[in-house]
Amino acid sequence: MSKTAISESDRKIPIEKNKVLPPAPPLPRTIHLVPLDYVGNFEIRPGFYETNGATAIPGGVNFTVYSHGATAIELLLFHREEKEPYAVIPFPPHYRIGNVYSMIVFKLNIEEFEYAYRVDGPYEPEKGLIFDKNRYLLDPYAKAVTGQSRWGETAPHEQHYKARVVKDDFDWGTMESPLLPMEDLIIYELHVRGFTVDPSSGVKHPGTFAGLMEKLPYLVELGVNAVELMPIFEFDEMQDYREVNGQKLYNYWGYNSVSFFAPNTSYAASKEYNREGNELKNLIREFNKKGIEVYLDVVFNHTAEGDEDGPFFSFKGFDNNIYYLLAPGGSYYNFSGCGNSLNCNHPIVHQMILNCLRYWVTTYRVNGFRFDLASILGRNEDGSPMSKPPLLQSLAFDPILGDVKLIAEAWDAGGMYQVGTFPSWNRWAEWNGIYRDDMRRYLRGDGGMAKAAALRLIGSRDIYEPHTRENASVNFITCHDGFTLYDLYAYDKKHNEKNGWNNTDGANDNFSWNCGVEGETEDSAINALRRRMARNAFALLMCSRGIPMFLAGDEFCNTQYGNNNAYCQDNPVSWLDWNMLDKNRDMFVFFQYMIQFRKDHRVLRANLSDGACGFPDVSFHGVTPWLRQFADYDRYVGVMFAGKEKKAEIIYIASNAYWEPLQVTLPRLPADLTWKQIVDTWEAPQSEKPLNGNGFQIQGRSVMVFIADTIPS
After folding, report:
1. What is the mean pLDDT of the chain?
2. Would you call 372 a catalytic residue per the annotation?
């Protein structure tokens, strides 16, 4: 060993917590921060210009805020939950450097105040300048937002938002992120409130982060290893609040961000004054300990400020013409379908988004992000698409974000659809909307879809070049947006009447099939068919190359009663009914079984080699092995995966979307191997049995899976 080499024992230095250390020698006399100016009774001095937001420091609080167009900014201090400030402290002109205003205010107790700003500047709406010195504005870097702590009880338009200073003293211990490989992920999408708010959940803290924590053993039992939380940034559930036929309708999903740096306080089970986020941090820590990563669904494409008629509470007042994409004349481009579009590639907004994601990774240890309507993040200031969007490239190469998952919803409401072409630098994955649509059409029996289904099963190689876009495809058949898996086979058409838009909202092209009767039925044959169709869909999802994702509740036949756009339904339409878990325990067991089967066989998740036992890595088959015509009338798909690591793995997936049984022959195996049936969706989930020979019959509308097994000696 060389003198400079480090031995293995030296590498493993134990970390001792709460160790009592000997008293340190006294430090030399140092110069501390002291007040330099006075405003009324407040002692102040210039602050830390590179530290955005409000930060507690020894002896006071540092406030830093910026605006390109402002001529003056005032800090407003409020007693807790008061509407009017008890103090107004202007930033002295000489406290401004460039476009940044920074000030330390001494002798402030963060537990005794809330804060906001007033910003003065020019008012020229045709240029996008709408400064108003009379408005109270929320800090864009606020770490905690007041005014909406009780779900659905406070209407923000009746009072302004304020912020609190957060004490970041959460002890993460020696926790490390699971750092799961992309190919191994099984993502479970859920709504924090809807997951446990129904009394059937049986949790002590329904509808909260703590309530979700109580369901951690369930998620471990199910077998998923990543949860994707629908928006948990502070949002305005009261936006567009209305009552329809006596039913209260909210902005329940939360795709209308108020603050990008603050967790939704109404998702906390208890008041977390000045420690907002600790409940969420505890959730992430405990999930990670169990090997489950936590991803946030983030909404950087627009804000809750809406269009010209929308509320005015933060970004409009700081730099409207910078934060939003504006058309000539000052009106808002609306590529989000929600009134405005964030100007993501402007350097100021670009920097804020990057800072925001870094904050969630370093302070909350978030493991990944799914970006809502991510194509907007690639638009230029005139709304045109960019070939190399600076923001997306920065996120791809940022060192702090180096280990987190980046997943794009690769389209927007303005018509840009980038599935397969989203700028990625081999770093971004994508929700594969083509997988969803092709598999739905194939499974319901549409003609001409067999080839498309086969290509989706092998990782959509026709869409993603496997050598440059590894693990790019997030495969899904259901998500929050659309039918649940049960509803996909119980309804031919959407039933969104309760949303109050005369059933005009939500997608019309669902590629669903009601199996013969619209909605609930007592017909046992139809109900059996619906359950088999759901098993078919999940079996193929778990046997597809790419990253599988499914919607919470699909594992026990959760229904939204045909509503495919339940964004406003904070009621049993959207809430999970946990009674269905007992009623449909067999479906849960099947999901559990298929998840474990995927985990046990890496050949389903990755190209292990060029093949095994003389077989190629992937191959397509008809009812006769190696003969694959993909005729328009064909509804049978056979896909075989073959690869080798420590030993050869060969798996054959047989899928019959035809309504009659078919006689099928499997490829001939080497002499020391035999086919073993692992899955038959026509039968019970655990239907493992050896196959006598190479032939088998597959029932109509069913899926079977076989593995090559050694012949018993």
Report:
1. 93
2. yes
